[in-house]
Amino acid sequence: MSSTRDDLPLLQIGGPAGDTPGGGCGDACGCGGDEGSYELDPLSCGLDPDLAALLVAAGLDPVQVEDVAHLALEEDLDQGVDVTTVATVPEDAVATADFTAREAGTVAGLRIAEAVLSMVCTDEFAVERHVEDGDHVEAGTVLLSVTTRTRDLLTAERSALNLLCRLSGIATATRRWADLLEGTKAKVRDTRKTTPGLRALEKFAVRCGGGVNHRMSLSDAALIKDNHVVAAGGVAEAFAAVRSEFPGVPIEVEVDRLDQIPPILAQGADLILLDNFTPEQTREAVELVNGRAMLESSGRLTLDNARPYAETGVDYLAVGALTHSSPILDIGLDLREDADHAALAPDAAAREDG
Question: 350 FRET partner, CA 20 to 30 A, in 131, 231, 241, 311?
Answer without folding.
Answer: 131
